[in-house]
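Hello K.,

You asked for the raw outputs rather than the summary table, so here they are, unedited. I folded two proteins back to back in the same session to keep the settings identical. This is the first:
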Amino acid sequence: MADLILNKSRLQQGNALCEKSKIKEALEFYRKAYELRRDLTQSEHHPDIPVYLANIGSCYYQLEEGENAIEYYRRSLRVEDEMVIDNEEGYLKTLRNLALALRDEDKYEDAIDFGERCASRRMELLGIHTDTARTYYLLGLFYYERNHRGDMRSAEENFNEALKIEEQLWKQGKPHSVDWENLKRRIQMVLARTEQKMKYPAYKRRFDNAERKSTQEPKETVILSDDDPEVDSSDDFVDEVKVEQMEESNLKSKCHDSNSSDSDEGDTRSVVSKYNCISSLALFKGQGDKFNKPKTARKENLHS
């Protein structure tokens, strides 16, 4: 019993340190909690183990040790697969984190593979939900950046899937995801790069309808977070000069800068934040986009 209390205490201390951005100290507590649980059970097949492994991975991500983050995210998923744990949302968050860590290491094919698995399962689990929209937006961004030249067709397809979900959210009287403004901007950039300016008026009408009060059912007040990135939402289609400026900004944002914000110069929140460190598998259940994520230093951060 004393060992179990100590183990819980270490996990709680790790969570508290994450909240204070003391990542190295948090990593040590998560390691000790993991080792103690493993030694007590003489196995990694315990529901707490994937939580500890995922939290360790998140700490490594914050410390910009991408390969270590990838290793622990994979281990967490493997244990959950072996145990068939009923923790779908926690599993999907780890999938998304792994996809982002792979993307940060320029392993786009693997990132896309895990991103597609996450998108498919989130649609099955959550349906029309901000987390589902964000996952499709993330996939679109992966394709946009792929091989440094991008796969614009696939990028547009996934951005369009995200847009469809955002449209349904608005009709249901629910808030847009935090990626809404970035989604509109990225679609413009795709159209500019593929010389499809003629398609923009149709997209613009969809953007406008998804922001018009008269098209929304009166269920929930739409409130954007105060720290949402500011994006130019002018009616004018982005021209080639603007695209070049955006691309230059994107390249700068992909550098590991300790002063960068948790929105990748605009592209959404960091998944691996202090709120990503969890105390139990059940904590992720049903939370969706409940938390406002804090600012964190990563390149093009997109964690949820």
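The second followed immediately with the same parameters:
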Amino acid sequence: MAITAGMDMADIGWEIKCREEDLKQRALENERRAIDDARRSVDEKAEQLKALGQQSALIAGFAMVVMVEASIPEDLNEVLLVLYGASASMVVALMLISMLNATFILVAILRYDCVNREVPFAHFWHTRCETDFRLALILFSYGIPLFMFVLALLGWVIFWDHTNASVYASSVVSVIAVGAMTVFYTHIQRKWGDFLINPEVMLYNPDAGMAASKHKRKQPDSARSK
């Protein structure tokens, strides 16, 4: 009896030890999974910020080149000259602020400690980065149509001294710029603008709702009543 009781106690102790080791292993796996999730979130936001900063810098450079390298005639209309200079400068300013915002946020999230995670990354992003990221997106979305407006004015500035067919050439450039601006507002901005800027907008799959409704219609009356 004593030997049997001792063996039972040994089995119980072994089970307790195995359970403790299993809990430690699960805790370690959960910690590794949490670190991987944090790093994945940081990498995802970093890629978004890099794309936004690079495109903003690219468009700002284009606008700067257009403003500096364009040969402006001496007899250019004063109103056209003011509109051209003001719109090009605004494009550079908007894109520059958007790029700087994205760069500073990128540096901030890359300093986030994914191992210790004293503050969850979602909370850190929501409280410290979300507002500035939305501002950068809004400024970028404002700068794109303004850059197209500069393109529309550029034709009139370049072809101002050309007496032969200058109106036709300038009008063609303006029509192309206005067409691109119309596509941007009616399709791109309308489809993606609110989804990217508003964090509360969620993805919706209409096929899932249709499949659920079809499945409900196919169920017999007895299954519905249950």
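Helices lie at 2-69, 78-110, 121-158, 166-197, 206-218, 221-225.

Happy to rerun anything if the numbers look odd on your end.

Regards,
P.
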